């Protein structure tokens, strides 16, 4: 029996994650809430073969530590990271065996993104609903909007400057657009583009779970 433990629920809801990979045959998949300090120690008692970190707490509780991830790796557990806390920790520990997947991981690994709070969101601790939008997601969408000629590079720079000035729990598209100099027509076009865009953290979470699925098949 191969056991997989995946920490998610925020970047990718549990039901959507299970549509990609669920327990079957000789594979047991356990989905857990965003990881925090001490969770890996508890997880190791369940003897997992793979641990995947997608979401984790930042400021609500102590974040998952580097030493506990390395403990899992040293015990032969394959540890993956993507999207949020997983991307951040994978970029810090990839040279020591943690496996990073996706855009957010690559942003940190290359130094294009440096601040922890670029992937942080305010969340409802009961429902795991995101109550803000992470900077990395907004930057990704605005960059695509530039590529699609919806906004100019200068307008994107203004939007990112506004977003960075906000404390991360207050970051969202509405506040940023309201403070911008974009005219109403351009705001409407951009809002429509945003609505059609899937969050990059969600894309990365799906990519990670598919990566594990392909490895197990």
What features would you describe in this structure?
- The chain has 217 residues and is α/β, with parallel strands linked by helices.
- It folds into 2 domains: 2-119 and 200-216, Rossmann fold, CATH 3.40.50; 135-196.
- It is built from 10 helices and 5 strands.
- The protein has helices at 14-20, 39-44, 66-74, 85-93, 103-110, 135-147, 153-165, 173-179, 184-196, 200-216, and strands at 2-7, 27-32, 50-53, 78-82, 99-101.
- A 5-stranded parallel β-sheet has the order 2-1-3-4-5, with helices on both faces.
- Helix 6 (135-147) packs antiparallel against helix 7 (153-165).
- The longest helix has 17 residues, at 200-216.
- It starts with a strand and ends with a helix.
- The model has no long low-confidence stretch (mean pLDDT 95).
Give a brief description.
The protein has 217 residues and is of the alpha/beta class.
Features:
about 220 residues; alpha/beta; Rossmann fold; 10 helices; elongated
Q: Helix segment count?
A: 10
Mean pLDDT: 95
Number of domains: 2
Could you estimate the helical fraction of the residues in percent? Answer: 40-55%
Annotated CATH architecture of the largest domain: 3-Layer(aba) Sandwich
Given the helix and strand composition, which structural class is it?
Answer: alpha/beta
What CATH calls the topology of the largest domain is Rossmann fold
The separation of the N and C termini measures 13 Å
Give, in order, the helices and strands.
EHEHEHEHEHHHHHH
Strand content: 5-15%
Quick one: how many beta strands? 5
Name the overall outline: elongated
Largest sheet: 5 strands, parallel
CATH class group of the largest domain = Alpha Beta
Compute the CA-based radius of gyration: 18 Å
Read across the widest sheet, the strand sequence of neighbours is 2-1-3-4-5
Low-pLDDT sequence parts = none
């Amino acid at each position: 029996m191969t056991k997989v433990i995946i920490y998610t629920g925020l970047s990718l809801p549990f039901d959507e994650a299970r549509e990609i990979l669920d327990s079957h045959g000789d594979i047991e998949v356990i989905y857990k809430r965003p990881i925090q300090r001490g969770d890996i120690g508890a997880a190791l008692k369940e003897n997992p073969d793979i641990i995947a970190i997608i979401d984790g707490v930042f400021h609500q509780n102590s974040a998952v530590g580097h030493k506990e991830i390395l403990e899992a790796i040293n015990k032969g557990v394959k540890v993956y990271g993507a999207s949020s806390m997983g991307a951040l920790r994978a970029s810090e520990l990839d040279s020591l065996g943690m496996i990073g997947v996706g855009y957010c991981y690559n942003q940190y690994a290359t130094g294009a993104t440096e601040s922890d709070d670029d992937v942080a969101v305010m969340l409802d601790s009961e429902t795991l609903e995101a109550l803000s939008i992470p900077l990395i997601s907004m930057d990704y969408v605005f960059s695509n909007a530039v590529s699609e000629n919806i906004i100019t590079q200068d307008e994107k720079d203004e939007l990112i400057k506004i977003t960075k000035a906000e404390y991360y729990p207050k970051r969202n598209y509405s506040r940023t657009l309201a403070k911008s100099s974009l005219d109403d027509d351009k705001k409407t076009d951009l809002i429509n583009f945003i609505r059609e865009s899937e969050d990059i953290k969600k894309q990365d979470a799906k990519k990670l779970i598919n990566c594990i699925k392909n490895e197990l098949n």
